[in-house]
Amino acid sequence: MRFRPLLALVLAFCLTFVATPSRVSAEFVPGKERGNAQFAQTVNSGKAGECPTLKAGSAGSINADGRIKDLCLKPTAVSVKLATRKRQKAEFLDSKIISPRFNTSISEVYGDLSGGKFTEKGGIDFSLFTVMAPNGEEFPLVFSVKDLVATSSDKSIAPGSEFKGSTFVPSYRTGDFLDPKSRAKDTGVDYAQGLVALGGDDEELQRENIKRDLTGNGEITLSIDSVDSATKEFSGSFIAIQPSDNDLGSKDPADVKVTGDLYGRVA
């Protein structure tokens, strides 16, 4: 008799797995939510970070006045400016994005377009990822088009047009970020409790202890390859050079070059 409760529990546990469906079919997902059944085909595939594309060779033109919507930039290659040997001039070395793998794109960016000048106003205008250089060193980066102001000498958007400008690069970490020694910029704890003898002329120790919210600026070039006059869409490529994370002032940032695909639409 005393085994009956245990037997009932085991039976209920087994029935739970038998009754659970192994997959969800789109036929049983009603209305607009039916598309969610395709989630398994998208997750970890990189498709969610893709920018729309135009047919290669589309040679239309768009008046460079109005409003740009749905600007999308997808990084496809990165390089870090480093000197591989002492007394050697630093140069950009091919690197790779290690985290996250499929979520590095900037999308839905919008702004004003007037006389060939684009002024960014908002959208998903930055992304965080980490780059690994050939020497194994990792460089966190804020890939950003915040406050982008880019100008073109052309009065229309057509194949061959280029927009060049500068961007604002925010700090990779906020002032509330705690390092392994529980120090931050905004918490009032600016030194490790175990380091009693502070002061002196130790510059490296001072940089570690005094947290600073340092920002930066980047440069970007948007190159147009294809234009669809009917839909007012354009696509092409971009090259951006921006500083890496400075760890709240404790280390010098490195220049990171990001190249990739570009898409946009004029409203």
Top-tier CATH class of one domain: Mainly Beta
Q: Shape from CA axes?
A: globular
Q: Specify the CATH architecture of one domain.
A: Beta Barrel
Please name the fourth-level CATH homologous superfamily of one domain: Photosystem II, cytochrome c-550 precursor
Strand order of the largest sheet: 2-4-5-8-10-11-12-13
Q: Per CATH, what is the topology of one domain?
A: Porin
Largest sheet: 8 strands, antiparallel, barrel
Could you please describe the fold and organization of this structure?
- It contains three helices and 13 strands; from the N terminus they run H-H-E-E-E-E-E-E-E-E-E-E-H-E-E-E.
- It has 267 residues and is mainly beta.
- It has a domain at 56-174 and 213-266: Photosystem II, cytochrome c-550 precursor (Porin).
- The strands form two sheets. It has an eight-stranded antiparallel barrel. Strands 1-9 form a two-stranded antiparallel ribbon.
- A hairpin with a 5-residue loop joins strand 6 (126-132) and strand 7 (138-144).
